[in-house]
Design goal:
The chain is α+β, with helices and mostly antiparallel strands and about 150 residues long. The protein has 2 helices and 10 strands.
């Protein structure tokens, strides 16, 4: 997790098996598994537009919301009770807030999605202006289609 995320927190999208959240660079998936799960029980395949994960009685598979870089994606088993996937977005630093993890599955509700867009906008500002700290900033605007709308008045 980047320094920005440590200060500002994450905006999670809750799912039946855990949660997912995103930064401008990555999508992180956290899967709660039975305590004592071993790494050999985890099967994960990353494609440019697809994801397939099988562990315990949990199967997550489908077409990703957007493209990733498969060779840079990874998974880890933490404390034998949490599987964490890190999916590296192929369109880094772009205005590409994912509405769902997979197309048609695990979609963020409108309020969560709005919070995700605001957080990613602030994170992009942080990248563009590294001397400033936007981690506790608030932003307002009409978020639909990738970011705030500014009036020229």
């Amino acid at each position: 997790m980047s320094n920005f995320d440590e200060k500002s927190g994450v905006v999670p999208c809750l799912t039946p098996w855990g949660l997912w959240y995103q930064t401008v660079d990555e999508v992180v998936v956290e899967i709660n598994v039975p305590e004592g799960t071993r790494s050999k029980a985890v099967k994960a395949n990353f494609g440019i537009t697809s994801l397939s994960v099988s562990v315990a009685n949990i199967n997550i598979q489908g077409t990703l919301y957007d493209k990733v870089i498969p060779d840079e994606c990874l998974w880890s088993l933490e404390d034998r009770k949490l599987v964490r996937l890190v999916l590296v977005k192929s369109h880094r630093h772009a205005e590409n807030c994912w509405k769902s993890l997979l197309k048609g599955q695990y979609e963020a509700d409108p309020m969560t999605f709005d919070r995700m867009e605001k957080k990613l906008t602030l994170q992009r500002f942080q990248y563009q202006h590294p001397g400033f700290d936007f981690s506790n900033a608030d932003i307002s605007g009409n978020y639909s289609g990738g970011g705030p709308k500014f009036d020229a008045d």
